[in-house]
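Data availability (excerpt). The following record was deposited with the supplementary files.
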Amino acid sequence: MANPRILSILSALLMLAACSRKILVEKDYYNPGKRPKYIIRVDKDGRKNGLETWWHPTGNKKYEATNRDGVREGEFTAWYPDGKLWYQGYEYHGKPESTLTYWYPNGKMKSEALFRDGIQLERKDYDEEGRFIVPKSLAGQENVPSLEEEEDARGEEMRLRKTSLNMWALRVRQTVEGYWVLPKQFEKDRPYRTVAKIKVAKDGKILGVTWMVKSPSEAFNSLAQRTFKRIKRLPAFPPLITEPTLDVQYEFISLGKQVPRKRLEARDPVDEPPPAP
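Predicted structure:
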């Protein structure tokens, strides 16, 4: 696991570099001075840096993304002319990460794929009525899927859901660690551990934080609490997750000694609750 303090320092250096870099704005219009066609922020070298937005001639948004040093960074979204979603995904350093979803013009999901480090791990496709398209490797000679094929499809959907949920939890962890700063005074002190349960809304808004475990150090606990006050929003849920809220657990530890750290996990509401410790 990357050292949170090092991640914080690197993040601060990147922000400092971005502030010192001169950002220019490129614009175009469908009608001179009237309806915008696109607005793109670029640096002095002509690389895209910052928010990029395109519009349809109707005035509805067509595409929006954030770029850093010429590549996409974070969530990107595209819309049909009537305002319905076309596709939505997430990239990290220009490589696809997490969920990439496409929709038909009628609003039904067309496909959903999972990526890690730019590599596609899984993909599911649907017809325009929203029915799952059975892969050729599962389909029989007849057009109507068998009971076994339908069970395979349902199992595949559940597996895709769990993978999507775990990758979302990883993005949440990366976001929190970007704000978690541990002063040097704790590096030589005894280990401390504080555990928070975060209730997150579908759009990534933090609805509440419950402290399940607190360390003996009030100063350490206060640092953990201030971390969530600095975070404006966590990553939104993947499209396959339809619940209005989810709970995710995060563990803060001191760096004085090597302490085993639990992997960040989000509890899936369809699962049975874990046994009490």
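Summary of structural features: The two ends are 25 Å apart (CA to CA).
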